[in-house]
Amino acid sequence: MIPYLHFEDIMFGPITLHVWGVMVSFGIIIGLVLANYLIKKNNLNQTIIFDNVFYLFLGAFVGARLFHVFLYEPRYYLDHPADIIKIWQGGLSSIGGFFGAAIAFFILNRFKKWTFKILLPYLDIFALSLWLGWGIGRIGCFLTHLHPGALTNFFLGVKYPDGTRFDLGLIDSFVGFSIFAVFAVFFKRFFKKKNGFLAAYSAATYFFIRFFIDFLRVTPEEYLGGDRRFGFLTPAQWSILLAFLILFFWLIYKKIKRQTLKISNK
Predict the structure, then answer these.
(1) Taking a C-beta distance cutoff of 8 angstroms, is the pair 185, 158 a contact?
(2) 215 — pLDDT class (breaks 50, 70, 90)
(3) Which of 181, 191, 213, 68 minimizes the C-alpha distance to 123?
(4) Which of 94, 112, 231, 232 has the most CB atoms within 10 Å of its CB?
(5) Which residues contact 48 (CB under 8 A, 6 or more apart)?
(6) Does the pLDDT at position 160 exceed 80?
(7) How far apart are CA 154 and CA 152, in angstroms?
(8) Domain-wise residue ranges, the chain
(9) In whole angstroms, what is the distance from residue 69 CA to residue 243 CA?
(10) pTM for the whole thing?
């Protein structure tokens, strides 16, 4: 079993740094360093993404925060509206971040008039970098124990004060590092040959795994810091189902469009 090590803040004289924020920031920095290295190594244009990375991160953070505020703790933030902007205290939804980044990307794409074909290799690089940063950032969730899970006898359970529990931050960190490791192995094989493969399949892999991981989460009634439910699923699980539903209808739309073009070209 893993001991319950709780680190909330790091003190540097009068300066207080929150461990969660430090680890998330460190994950972002390492991810960007790797992305920059891969872009240079593959002779791609750094300005296409790095000139706009601020807006992508802004969209991710806004989406992650709003998702958390409105779907996880609406009553608290209704009573404490000033705390909505205090993201350094925690309270970002990873799934909300995906949606926020996707919306920001779509808006940028409309303004910049990028072609999807040009962007695919960059998406693959940033996907690989994302999972490395994800694994690092989620360590912050583990050290602060933001996501306690169900009671367990599993050898990787964490000895919480009330018993051994799954720690969803630790599990999500492991998932992030694992996805990074697996797709890093396939990076050379598929990059430039099947652009978009790494981005699409790594995201789908995470969503699929995350859907089942969320069944290990506890409710706020079971444990302080637990996650609320809508029906029998968490907000993240409902969002994942929505994402797969959108993808399903998008694929049908693309297939119908291709068939229509074939018929019109005959």
Answers:
(1) no
(2) very high
(3) 191
(4) 94
(5) 114, 118, 119, 122
(6) yes
(7) 5
(8) 9-265
(9) 20
(10) 0.84
DSSP tag of 147 = S
213: confidence class by pLDDT, cuts 50, 70, 90: very high
Query: What is the C-alpha separation between 158 and 171, in angstroms, rounded?
Result: 11
Q: Helices (H) and strands (E) in the chain — how many of each? A: 9, 5
Q: Please report, for residues 111, 128, 132, 186, the alpha-carbon distance to residue 182 in angstroms, rounded to integers and kept in the order given.
A: 34, 10, 11, 7
3-state helix, strand, coil in the chain (%, to 5): 70, 10, 20
Q: Counting every residue, how long is the chain?
A: 266
Smallest Cα–Cα separation from 135: which of 166, 174, 182? Answer: 174
Closest to 129 in 3D by CA, of 42, 236, 213: 42
**pLDDT confidence band for 82 (50 / 70 / 90):** confident
8 Å CB contact between 100 and 68: no
pLDDT band of residue 181 (cuts 50, 70, 90) is very high
Q: What are phi and psi of 29, to 5 degrees?
A: -65, -50
Token pair 């959108």 in the structure block, residue: 246
Q: What angle do CA 28, 32, 35 make, to 5 degrees?
A: 140
What the block records as the tokens of 135 is 């694994």
pLDDT of amino acid 225: 65
